[in-house]
């Protein structure tokens, strides 16, 4: 299962409460206040990890609860701090803070201990706060043990002057962080401070303080984790154009290849190696796009977020026109779908690659195609027969380097 968007609830640990205690020892009358301080609650920390490629862990454990701080004790002993909860997420994870509904989770009354156990009760209350999806993309929601994928097929056509992707981002809430580098950390929720014990409040005038500070609550909130893969080159094309075959030819990735549409259902990243100078490029193969994808036809636009960070885009066309398709129509509708998703995608350097040049109709189709797009360079290849692959590797490297210096 591939999960690239998931809603989570995170709560940092509550600070432990300070203790009220008095020193008692033989021959020491009125030993004075000796209540220790409470420990601080653990933080919820996110850490980017390049060994992960999707958010499945958060799909199964979506309540991220850090440990509470221990309460202070007598004899001046301070409580232990709660352990930080370190959550590993794939590189490329963006975190959005969702607006909370006021009655959600019913938290706020835990005081020091037992916070972990209450996670179960939160789950039981969750169905009450489930409401219809506000976003136009699949949102995976949890309701106790039952998981459901909610698809809002509602129109994407609001007329507010924003592009599709900008509107989607605006609806998601406040962007909290973007973890791109391996090992990068971000404190999502800070743990609460521990309370001071009564020994801190002794003064000359008040020598027996019978009170101590309670601990502070940790930060909490609902968040949306969204994964946008990090690759330099994005491969887009109609189903069956040969994207996975091309990825297999240039890298060690082994996506499934078959002669039916929508073989690839999740984005695949391959690493292209240039042994001569140990250079590497990452290429992302996104599932096939078809006309009307913005209306959720086929697999829809859901996976286009994974090419949003790519520096260059490769449009792969089936020049043989298999299944009575016309390369020119495919090209037009691919560009249209990219534009509908995010117009800025078309500003990226674009390489048009004509695949399946080994098939008989391909030559004639390529000639006709080139006449229509005179300015755009078209690279002919035959991915299945390793023809033109060396030129393709060279071209993408050159384009990525040029795009890099411009940026
Ligand atoms: N003749 C010929 N067939 C090819 C070539 N490249 C790919 N194919 C065939 O085209 C079919 C589809 O290839 P895939 O690589 O699975 O296509 P895809 O674009 O990944 O398709 P989806 O994952 O369904 O979007 C397979 O049967 C391949 O063998 C080529 O250069 N020449
Ligand atoms: Mg494929």
What's this, in brief?
This protein has 407 residues and is an alpha/beta fold. The protein is built from 7 helices and 16 strands.
Description:
With 407 residues, the protein is of the alpha/beta class. The protein has two domains: 5-227, Spo0b-associated Gtp-binding Protein, Chain: A, CATH 2.70.210.12; 233-406, P-loop containing nucleotide triphosphate hydrolases (Rossmann fold, 3-Layer(aba) Sandwich), CATH 3.40.50.300. It is 19% helix and 23% strand. The chain has seven helices and 16 strands. The strands form four sheets. Strands 12-13-11-14-15-16 form a six-stranded mixed β-sheet, sandwiched between helices. It is elongated and about 105 Å long. The two termini are 35 Å apart. Residues 104-149 and 153-158 have low confidence and may be disordered. Bound molecules: guanosine-5'-triphosphate and magnesium ion.
Fold blueprint:
Blueprint: E1 5-11, E2 44-49, H1 56-60, E3 63-65, E4 85-90, E5 93-98, H2 119-129, E6 139-143, E7 146-150, H3 164-172, E8 174-179, E9 185-189, E10 220-227, E11 233-237, H4 243-250, E12 268-274, E13 279-285, E14 312-318, H5 327-341, E15 350-355, H6 362-372, E16 378-380, H7 389-406
Parallel strand pairs: 1-3, 2-4, 11-13, 11-14, 14-15, 15-16
Antiparallel strand pairs: 1-10, 2-9, 5-8, 5-10, 6-7, 12-13
The structure holds guanosine-5'-triphosphate (GTP) and magnesium ion.
The site of magnesium ion has 5 residues, from helix 4.
């Amino acid at each position: 299962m591939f999960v690239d968007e998931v809603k989570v609830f995170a709560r940092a640990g509550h600070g432990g409460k300070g203790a009220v205690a008095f020193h008692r020892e033989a021959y020491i009358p009125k030993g004075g206040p000796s209540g220790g301080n409470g420990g601080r609650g653990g933080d919820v920390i996110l850490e980017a990890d390049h060994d992960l490629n999707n958010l499945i862990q958060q799909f199964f454990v979506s309540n991220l609860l850090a440990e509470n701080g221990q309460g202070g004790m007598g004899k001046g002993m301070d409580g232990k701090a709660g352990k930080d909860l370190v959550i590993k997420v794939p590189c490329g994870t963006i975190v959005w803070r969702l607006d909370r509904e006021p009655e959600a989770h019913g938290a706020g009354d835990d005081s020091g201990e037992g916070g972990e156990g209450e996670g179960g009760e939160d789950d039981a209350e969750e169905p009450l706060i489930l409401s219809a999806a506000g976003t136009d993309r699949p949102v995976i929601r949890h309701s106790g043990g039952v998981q459901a994928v909610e698809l809002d097929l509602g129109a994407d056509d609001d007329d507010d002057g924003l592009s599709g992707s900008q509107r989607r981002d605006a609806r998601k809430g406040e962007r909290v962080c973007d973890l791109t580098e391996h090992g990068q950390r971000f404190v999502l929720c800070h743990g609460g401070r521990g309370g001071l014990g009564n020994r801190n409040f002794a003064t000359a005038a008040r020598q027996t303080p019978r009170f101590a500070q309670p601990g502070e609550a940790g930060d909490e909130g609902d968040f949306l984790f969204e994964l946008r893969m990090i690759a330099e080159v994005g491969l887009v094309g109609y189903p069956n154009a040969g994207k996975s075959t091309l990825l297999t030819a240039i890298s060690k990735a082994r996506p499934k290849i078959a002669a039916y549409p929508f073989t690839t259902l999740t984005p695949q990243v391959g690493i292209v190696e240039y042994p001569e100078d140990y250079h590497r490029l990452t290429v992302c193969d996104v599932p096939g796009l078809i006309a009307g994808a913005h209306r959720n036809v086929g697999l829809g636009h859901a996976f286009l977020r994974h090419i949003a960070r790519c520096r260059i885009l490769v449009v792969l066309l089936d020049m043989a026109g298999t299944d009575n398709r016309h390369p020119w129509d495919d090209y037009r509708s691919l560009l249209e779908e990219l534009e509908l998703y995010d117009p800025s995608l078309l500003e990226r350097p674009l390489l048009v690659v004509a695949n399946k040049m080994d098939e008989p109709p391909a030559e004639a189709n390529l000639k006709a195609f080139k006449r229509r797009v005179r300015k755009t360079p078209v690279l002919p290849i035959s991915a299945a027969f390793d023809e033109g692959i060396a030129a393709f590797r060279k071209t993408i490297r050159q384009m990525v380097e040029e795009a890099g210096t411009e940026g």
